[in-house]
Amino acid sequence: MPAEPADDPTKPTVARERMVADQLIARDIDDLRVIEAMRRVPRHLFVPGGVIDEAYRDAPSPIGHGATISQPYIVAFMTQALAIEPTDRVLEVGTGSGYGAAVLAALAAHVTTVEVVPELAETARALLADRDEDLEVVTGDGSLGFPPNAPYDAISVTAAGPEIPDPLLDQLAPGGRLVMPVGRGVERLLLVTRGPDGDTTETLIPVRFVPLRGRYGV
Questions:
Q1: What is the rounded CA–CA span in Å between residue 105 and residue 170?
Q2: What is d(CA 20, CA 36) in angstroms, rounded to the nearest whole number?
Q3: Rounded to the nearest 10 degrees, how much is the dihedral formed by the CA atoms of 60, 95, 81, 87?
Q4: Nearest to 116 by CA among 92, 90, 98, 142
Q5: CB-based contacts of 88: which residues, under 8 Å, 6+ apart?
Q6: Tens-digit pLDDT profile for the chain (218 aa)?
Q7: Between 12-19 and 32-40, two packed helices, what is the crossing angle to 10 degrees?
Q8: H or E stretch including 72?
Q9: What's the CA gap between 105 and 125, in Å, rounded?
Q10: CA distance 22 to 155
Q11: Residue 70 is a catalytic residue
Q12: One of 61, 70, 97, 143 is an active-site residue; which one?
């Protein structure tokens, strides 16, 4: 049997390298730690069916239960905006398939990820079980955060709500950062930074996400 071509796009490593080069570096992703995390995490394992073309294309993918795995660029953009340090404790709201949590865990000291859909939480927990990072999957209402592990240096919200839930802001550590899509239809991705004189809010880019579920969502 002939050897598999080194540039075979059906190989996950090749597809992942192309994703990083064409979808991330060619745009505005320049944080080397984020780039390396996106290069290392096998995205195809978190997409139903493990289809390479589906996993590494420049678009979100459905994962069932009305949820999606965000397109690679958005995952990288939100992660870069959080400026995660190796000592940071991170909260993710909306585990979905677990891919975003895996990327965050490659950068942080500890990640808590909360998923409101029990079936998604169970699947993500199984997919993430063998990873070496300090990562905890919680089944529950992520719009309430997860107080037992607070405060958090970074909070990533992967679903859109009408406003940033107060419980999430309450669980943000001094100097902490939070990213969340806010609005309906086409949302604004907001970055909140907790400074010594109060919070500052910056509008980053227009985005489109599934709606946030729970007390502070739909």
A1: 22
A2: 9
A3: -150
A4: 142
A5: 107, 108, 109, 152, 153, 154
A6: 334 444 555 689 999 999 999 999 999 999 999 999 999 999 999 999 888 989 999 999 999 999 999 999 999 999 999 999 999 999 999 999 999 999 999 999 999 999 999 999 999 999 999 888 899 999 999 999 999 999 999 999 999 999 999 999 999 999 999 999 999 878 999 999 999 999 999 999 999 999 999 999 87
A7: 150
A8: helix 72-82
A9: 13
A10: 27
A11: yes
A12: 70
For the record, the structure tokens of 199 come out as: 């919070």
Task: Pull the structure tokens for residue 157.
Answer: 């919200």
Structure tokens at 151: 């405060």
Q: Hey, what amino acid is at 25?
A: I
> What token pair was written down for 65?
């239960």
Task: Return the DSSP state at 87.
Answer: T
Is 181 in a helix, a strand, or coil? strand
Beta-strand ranges (E) seen in the chain are 61-64, 67-69, 89-93, 110-115, 135-139, 152-157, 172-182, 187-195, 198-207
